[in-house]
Specification:
By secondary structure, the chain is of the alpha+beta class. The protein is built from one helix and five strands. The chain has one helix at residues 3-16, and strands at 26-28, 36-38, 44-49, 54-57, 66-68. The relative contact order is 0.16.
C-alpha cells in the first residue's frame, strides 16, 4: 500500500464516519491481531540500508524508501 492509498482510505473512512475523528488510533502487532498498541508518533521517512533489514530515518525525500506510520 502506498501513502496515497492509505491517506485516501482514511479520508474515505472519515467522510463516512466523521464522529470517529476523536478516537485513539491503534495498530495490530501482527496480521492476526493478537495484540494491539496505541500509535505514538507521526509519519517518518525511512531509508533501507544494506540487505534491507536495517532501516534509518531520513529527512531527504530522495533517500526515502518507505514511510513509517508509527
Amino acid at each position: 500500500m502506498t501513502l496515497e492509498e492509505y491517506v485516501e482510505g482514511l479520508n474515505d473512512f472519515l467522510e463516512m464516519n466523521p464522529e470517529a475523528k476523536e478516537l485513539p488510533v491503534v495498530y495490530a502487532s501482527d496480521p492476526e491481531g493478537n495484540d494491539w498498541h496505541y500509535t505514538f508518533s507521526s509519519p517518518t521517512m525511512i531509508s533501507k540500508e544494506g540487505n534491507g533489514y536495517s532501516r534509518s530515518t531520513t529527512y531527504n525525500i530522495d533517500e526515502a524508501d518507505e514511510i513509517c506510520i508509527n
